[in-house]
Amino acid sequence: RPQSTNTGYGTGCNIGIQAARGELIFLLNQDTVLDPRCLEELVRTMGLHPESGICGPKMLFHHEPRILNSFGFGVTRFLFAWDRGLFEMDHGQYDHQPCSLGASGGALMIRRSVIDHIGDLDPDYFMYQEDVAFCLRAVLAGYTVAMAPGARVYHKQTFEGLGHLHRDFHGPRNRLRTLIKNLDMPVLIWALLGHLTYEILVIGSALLHLDFRRASGRTAAVLWNIGHLRLLWRKRENVLRLKRISDIRL
Question: How many CA atoms lie within 13 A of 205 on its CB side?
Fold first, then answer.
């Protein structure tokens, strides 16, 4: 049905997921171009890895098709997610690492059975980190994420209209809420200490450079999570009920 307002990435995807009838759901950003064999390779990889609930393609930059945009993501010890291979020349260096902790929501294939089990994308994120949160939820529930090196997507990576809110509010706000929703104690405390220390350093640097927009956006991101702890804790309880692997193993 037509939408008169921008409901955000998660809600938009969920509308499509609810309308779809297939056993495999493919999420795709509008600023992408698919290699002709992309879907074929994704479906083939899902067939080769029946234990995988999610499959991601190799994403390259549209304007520099030899440069990687993302080939799945990993996380640091503090659970900062990073795109594997970002800005590297693609020499097939990650092709032998077929599994990942997750894949970019810009092009993501998901089994319907996974969505039926763990739920769809969190619509409250609006933008950024929905894919990280969804993939972590799936991995913690016991699914694996397969990567298909033969499936190629060329990403134009365009941004429309929200300016500094992209970097300085939505991103850090959603990173923090993903931790709160998915992690057990004491790993949650450890990860929050790392993220909050980072945010304090970024806010301090912004103030020193008189970048008040950045400082206010990052501060608002932290305060939002404090103000919505009750809501996040309810969602966290739902996620923890599905967990099958430990945070330490993650």
Answer: 7
